[in-house]
Design a protein that fits this description.
CATH architecture: Roll
Number of domains: 1
CATH class: Alpha Beta
Mean pLDDT: 86
Helix content: 25-40%
Shape: globular
Strand content: 15-25%
Number of helices: 5
Largest sheet: 7 strands, antiparallel
Distance between the termini: 31 Å
CATH topology: C8orf32 fold
Length: 216
């Protein structure tokens, strides 16, 4: 089921991106985003621990230290990342875990096409891993948004800085452009979490053109 769903997601992403190419051209590419500075060990999220301890999902949390720590971005790869972000956002119905699962926090891959923030992020990572990107360079990240407070996004650690894939926007943003406070993220060295020091960012303003643009 997940394979056919993934194919549908990618097709949706391709369709969603076509107007962007027409409207904004094909020459947009992100400037350097800067990088977050992880600190020491941070407490794990309980629902993440339950997700990772499941035999079915354990591979989604595995850390292979032989993988690169950073993704080397190219225009074509940027295009694919934007496509996956848009495709997943268009394919999943946003619903809280309380309404969906009857529990406060449950992590999964949105196999029934319903989920909340972390489910979107996990599915995006799965699709990008399937496209050959190193899981080690894509970290689940806990942020505070100043409204609902707790929120989860996927951070891509790249040679051009750290970029965020978020179910609240189709635009792939540099971390400092999101308006979030960065609390912690998965470690790149072991199965666990590291602190991001509650690093704040300026409130999100107008989205830069490169955030959702198509690159050749």
């Amino acid at each position: 089921m997940i394979r056919s769903f993934a194919t549908a997601v990618l097709l949706l992403g391709t369709v969603a991106l076509a107007p962007v190419a027409d409207a904004r051209g094909r020459d947009r590419y992100p400037p350097s985003a800067g990088s977050l500075s992880p600190g020491g060990e941070a407490p794990s999220i309980k629902a993440w621990s339950e997700f990772c301890s499941s035999g079915f999902y354990a591979r989604e949390c595995a850390v292979d230290r032989s993988e690169p720590q950073r993704i080397v971005l190219t225009p074509a790869l940027w295009r694919h990342i934007v496509s996956v972000n848009r495709g997943v956002n268009a394919s999943i119905a946003s619903v809280s875990d309380e309404d969906h699962r009857g529990r406060r926090d449950v992590w999964d891959l949105a196999e029934d096409r319903k989920g909340d923030c972390e489910d979107y992020a996990l599915l995006k990572r799965k699709l990008l891993v399937g496209a050959g990107l190193p899981r080690r360079a894509m970290r689940m990240t806990a942020v505070a948004d100043g409204v609902d407070m707790g929120h989860a996004v996927l951070t891509l650690i790249t040679d051009r800085g750290d970029f965020v894939l978020d179910n609240r926007t189709d635009e792939v943003m540099g971390w400092a452009d999101t308006g979030y406070t960065f609390v912690k993220r998965e470690s790149q060295d072991e199965v666990g979490w590291v602190s991001l020091g509650n690093t704040p960012t300026a409130p999100a303003g107008p989205r830069p053109a490169w955030a959702s643009a198509i690159a050749p």
